[in-house]
Task: inverse folding
């Protein structure tokens, strides 16, 4: 514990004279009304200068000395270059006195300004909480749904937003057992407060609740007094037409590495030349290859490592290094090279003991032309390398890679499979891509299964034939082939590609599983380089975004494809695991949770409507339901993912894109808990995931097909939602996902007019309030571009909607 200031003063007075010279001054302490000495000996003016300071001392003896002197030490100590760092509460005079005695007193960690800021924030929070406690909160229902999952188990999912955002507000849900049953007869549960980036979002269940009967309504009550009752609707399970009687599926029977996957789509293109072709993407990857390495030493100071100049597969694995102790005393350090074998003769002293340090070996190797042509040497993780090395026998450098010879070590030629009867750019394009993250072994199977179903059912299934005839489909089953190979054969938890951007301090062999770029953080929209959250600039981080945006050939290949084929209007990025279905925006800046621009109201509703169709297709395979709470824009249901590919394609190309996270949690009725499945579940589970999400990818094609065929114009109407003296509130109702453009001044609406927005995240349409007689003019336009009433916003006709609203005066 920290010593009190009174104790510190006593200790200073008791110091021996020799130690007390120049010691910290003892100031007079004011007496209290009881005559005792007040614990705080500083005046209000002096108190303003007190700060929590960093002190670096050579060792523990000096820490003990500070403690004996009565310095107000915090319970903190860590080893740093130069000794130990401790923290102490010091006044400016105390800091000067300690520096005068030779102590290294550094910068302040916190001072009274921080205290004042904290106090102000606390006062504001307390005041806000008090104000909230004094008022009944308003509850806004966001979603209330029941659904079935595997084995027809029913579940309930509810989301409600309170106007009271403090942590003391508790919401409780109670639901019935079906139409006509008593409220609360189905059960009750306390809801969890969902926050993100420090901000309150809404309340929900931490996981859907199992229920015995489908509820018809749920009532949510707040500890602040608010209450709301809302109907419960069914989530998913919409009837889909069954495939033709000859429709076949199930084309994968084992996990496949990227070489197998690429061979599979190449074979398909050869087998179905009238319907498919291979597109070779222009940027070859770095390849499944590494430079060969070897490390010598047992402690950081005497350790160094060497790295071959050539990749291991190109001769680096043939290089060897030996450290030899000479038989004679007083020998000088020397380097000799014979072919690919390097020998370092270590230096010795007059007694024959080795004197060569790790830094000495590094300098000798890097300074020898023939050796430097074969390898480079570095000390261990930036250590000065002052420790003496030991002799070592000839050691062959190795790249450590374990894949069989069937996996090429050359730069990988990424390939996409293009499927369509008419592949000339005249049809709506759909881009399906998988395995951006190497360890997600199920995802390439999803893409392969989809390709197989499309081509092998074309001749016998009418629905499949319509998809292939009416669309231009691009399938990239492995977006990260190098990392995929590394995950299969070397380190199964590899997330990134294999490109090593680390400098020598992080490039030793033990770091080999920490190299690479997270390809789904390497894109140019909302990136970490622009200040967005969810990625790192640290080269050893699993979410390393790369040295620059689009630094990686794998990412550039995706961008090239979407630019080369501008007919691509839809995309699906398939990941694992967790059972999510998401769409842009995908990232935000943590400060203030500044999210990338939200998609407009019509597009948001389109995403939601399409999700019902797509996720019902997923459910049709074995009953798996993706939760409502795991459906929505990425930051709303998961986290910020700076620089992800879906944002790249949406914001730069307007491509309507989704993200699958296959591998939904599996419910265990015995424990009544959901169990996660992981990245590489037993193949029996992985197979089922591949089958159900391939069904989802087929459904995305159906969504694109409907988009291409959509000629129906939307229909909208104005809906008054509230009346009060001097004010009226209204919004618009639309028969399909569409955007509304409106004016309130009687002018002709155009695409430059005000656009209807959402009331808030996961909420309904914006509510518009007027305070006087108002002429509202508006029109709707759907996502396919069909305009209500065939109105021409840039024309002169007046066939838009118009309605005059009158505001009540009492």
Result:
């Amino acid at each position: 514990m920290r010593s009190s200031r009174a104790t510190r003063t006593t200790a200073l007075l008791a110091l021996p004279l020799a130690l007390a010279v120049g010691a910290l001054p003892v100031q007079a302490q004011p007496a209290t009304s009881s005559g005792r000495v007040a614990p705080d000996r500083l005046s209000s003016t002096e108190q303003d200068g007190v700060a929590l300071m960093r002190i670096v001392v050579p060792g523990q003896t000096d820490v003990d000395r500070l403690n004996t002197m009565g310095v107000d030490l915090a319970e903190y100590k860590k080893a740093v270059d130069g000794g130990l760092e401790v923290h102490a509460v010091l006044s400016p005079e105390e800091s000067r006195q300690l520096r005068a005695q030779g102590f290294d007193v550094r910068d302040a960690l916190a001072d009274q300004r921080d205290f004042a800021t904290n106090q102000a924030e606390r006062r504001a929070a307390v005041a806000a909480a008090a104000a909230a406690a004094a008022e009944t909160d308003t509850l806004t229902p966001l979603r209330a749904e029941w659904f079935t999952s595997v084995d027809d188990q029913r579940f309930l999912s509810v989301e409600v937003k309170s106007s009271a955002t403090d942590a003391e507000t508790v919401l409780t849900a109670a639901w019935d057992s079906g139409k006509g049953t008593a409220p609360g007869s189905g059960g009750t549960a306390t809801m969890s407060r969902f926050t993100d980036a420090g901000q309150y979002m809404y309340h929900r269940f931490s996981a859907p609740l199992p229920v015995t009967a489908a509820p018809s309504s749920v009532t949510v009550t707040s500890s602040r007094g608010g209450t709301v009752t809302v109907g419960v609707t069914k989530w998913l399970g919409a009837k889909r037409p069954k495939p033709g009687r000859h429709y076949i599926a199930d084309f994968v029977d084992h996990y496949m590495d990227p070489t197998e996957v690429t061979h599979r789509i190449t074979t398909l293109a050869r087998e179905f030349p009238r319907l498919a072709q291979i597109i070779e993407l222009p940027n070859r990857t770095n390849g499944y290859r590494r430079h060969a390495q070897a490390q010598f030493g047992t402690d950081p100071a005497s350790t160094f490592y060497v790295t071959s100049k050539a990749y291991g597969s190109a001769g680096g694995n043939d290089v060897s290094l030996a450290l030899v102790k000479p038989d004679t005393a007083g020998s000088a350090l020397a380097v000799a090279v014979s072919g690919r074998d390097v020998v370092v003769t270590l230096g010795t002293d007059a007694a024959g003991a080795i004197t060569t340090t790790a830094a000495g070996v590094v300098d000798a190797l890097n300074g020898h032309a023939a050796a430097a042509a074969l390898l480079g040497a570095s000390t261990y993780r930036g250590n000065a390398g002052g420790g003496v090395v030991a002799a070592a026998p000839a050691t062959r450098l190795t790249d450590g890679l374990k894949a069989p010879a069937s996996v090429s070590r050359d730069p990988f030629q990424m390939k996409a499979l293009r499927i369509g009867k008419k592949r000339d750019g005249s049809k709506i394009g759909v881009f399906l891509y998988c395995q951006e993250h190497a360890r997600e072994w199920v995802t390439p199977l999803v893409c392969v299964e989809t390709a197989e179903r499309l081509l092998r059912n074309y001749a016998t299934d009418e629905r499949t034939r319509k998809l292939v005839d009416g669309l231009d489909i691009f399938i990239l089953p492995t977006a990260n082939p190098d990392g995929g190979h590394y995950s299969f054969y070397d380190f199964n938890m590899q997330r990134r590609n294999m490109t090593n951007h680390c400098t020598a301090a992080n490039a030793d062999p033990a770091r080999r599983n920490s190299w690479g770029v997270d390809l789904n953080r390497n894109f140019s929209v909302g990136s970490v380089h622009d200040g967005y959250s969810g990625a790192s600039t640290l080269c050893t981080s699993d979410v390393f975004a790369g040295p620059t945006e689009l630094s990686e050939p794998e990412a550039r290949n995706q961008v090239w494809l979407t630019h080369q084929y501008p007919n691509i209007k839809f995309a699906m990025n398939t990941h694992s695991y967790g059972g999510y279905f998401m769409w842009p925006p995908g990232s935000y800046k943590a400060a203030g949770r500044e999210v990338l621009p939200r998609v407009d109201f019509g597009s948001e509703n389109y995403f939601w409507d399409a999700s019902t169709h797509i996720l019902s297709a997923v459910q049709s395979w074995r009953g798996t339901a993706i939760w409502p709470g795991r459906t929505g824009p990425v930051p709303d249901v998961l986290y910020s993912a700076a620089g992800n590919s879906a944002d790249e394609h949406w914001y730069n190309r307007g491509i309507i894109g989704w993200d699958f996270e296959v591998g939904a949690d599996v419910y265990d009725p015995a424990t009544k808990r959901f169990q996660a499945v992981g990245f590489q579940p037993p193949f029996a589970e992985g197979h089922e995931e591949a089958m159900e999400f391939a069904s989802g990818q087929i459904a995305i094609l159906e969504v694109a097909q409907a988009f291409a065929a959509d000629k129906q114009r939307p229909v909208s109407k104005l809906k008054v939602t509230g009346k009060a003296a001097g004010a009226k509130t209204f919004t618009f109702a639309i028969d399909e996902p569409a955007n509304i453009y409106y004016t309130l001044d009687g002018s002709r609406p155009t695409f430059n007019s005000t656009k209807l927005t959402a009331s808030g995240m996961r909420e309904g349409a914006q509510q518009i309030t007027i305070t006087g007689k108002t002429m509202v003019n508006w029109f709707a336009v759907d996502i396919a571009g069909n305009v209500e009433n065939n109105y021409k916003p840039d024309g002169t006709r007046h066939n838009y909607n118009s309605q005059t609203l009158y505001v009540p005066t009492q």
